[in-house]
């Protein structure tokens, strides 16, 4: 089960909620069975209960329309992405205003083309500029477009226009949710307010543990200083004012080289597969076991974030039985300080570097 919250979804209660009337509960169960629900039927029942309760909550028509439209958009997007679950994906963000002759345009096209050659798929906002460049590099078959309806004319770029993998969203929040839910890495090219918004959202999700940690690469034009200027603001203002910590800078890598950015993404998944939380325990899944010496080194290097015990190498935990497809993978289990996600990002690097 893909879980972009890295275990948060697994921790949600699985017992269906009651509408408060046993007779109605049974009618809902019967309705779901008669409809032919074939998986997670208890969750479908709960969504029906929630919808029925809203009918008595004196919710405004505007709110009901928003909730209804959001759910429809999320359902449709999930259905589009489902056949491609086996592919790793990279989201490419950047300005829609970057013309084809700009170096950043060429870099985005090259980046997408090389990621597809490594069997990744590309996700963009579906527009022109950097998005269109990445779409062109990836090609129609290996890319998705998550387009947003705007008050002024907004047409998808010519590569993804008309494709079944083009998804049109009415709301930015449903669109942004799908960007972070479906991706395995994010590449940021120079852009405006939208690019800043998307980049800071990803950073906030990783910093707070509300989203899974994945590679975030900030790619400048060759010799450019866009991201250096951005980083100078973070260092000179946010860091010095104590509004962020120095380890928060572990979440991203800045470069003006497409190849360096790609190497950062590939390295992240060299041995590391995924992680999830089981209570206070962090369970890291790996492709292969680490040596006893590597475990000893990790316990030494990351003692500062361990709240209790040590990092131990184990088999799958009983609580992971709902993910049988990865049950055979070796695990690391630890109890880290969940305020130290920047250090946890470095721990993932160690999982990869110490596997050699």
Describe the structure.
The chain is α/β, with parallel strands linked by helices and 356 residues long. The chain has 11 helices and 11 strands. The strands form 2 sheets. Strands 4-3-2-1-5-6-7 form a 7-stranded parallel beta sheet, with helices on both faces. A 4-stranded antiparallel beta sheet has the order 8-9-11-10, covered by helices on one side. It is globular, with a radius of gyration of 22 Å.
Number of strands: 11
Which geometry do the CA atoms define? globular
Described by strand count, sense and barrel closure, the largest sheet is:
7 strands, parallel
Record the strand order, biggest sheet: 4-3-2-1-5-6-7
Strand content: 15-25%
Count of helical segments? 11
Radius of gyration: 22 Å
Uncertain regions: pLDDT < 50 for 5+ in a row? none
What's the overall average pLDDT, rounded?
Answer: 94
N-to-C span: 28 Å
Give me the secondary-structure category.
alpha/beta
Helix content: 40-55%
Order of helices and strands: HHHEHEHEEHEHEHEHEEHEEH
Question: Which features does this protein show?
Answer:
single chain, 356 residues, alpha/beta, seven-stranded parallel β-sheet, four-stranded antiparallel β-sheet, 11 helices
Write the layout of secondary structure elements.
Elements: H1 22-35, H2 41-54, H3 61-81, E1 88-93, H4 103-117, E2 120-124, H5 130-138, E3 143-148, E4 166-169, H6 172-182, E5 185-188, H7 193-208, E6 216-219, H8 226-239, E7 253-255, H9 258-268, E8 272-278, E9 281-286, H10 292-301, E10 306-314, E11 331-336, H11 341-353
Parallel strand pairs: 1-2, 1-5, 2-3, 3-4, 5-6, 6-7
Antiparallel strand pairs: 8-9, 9-11, 10-11
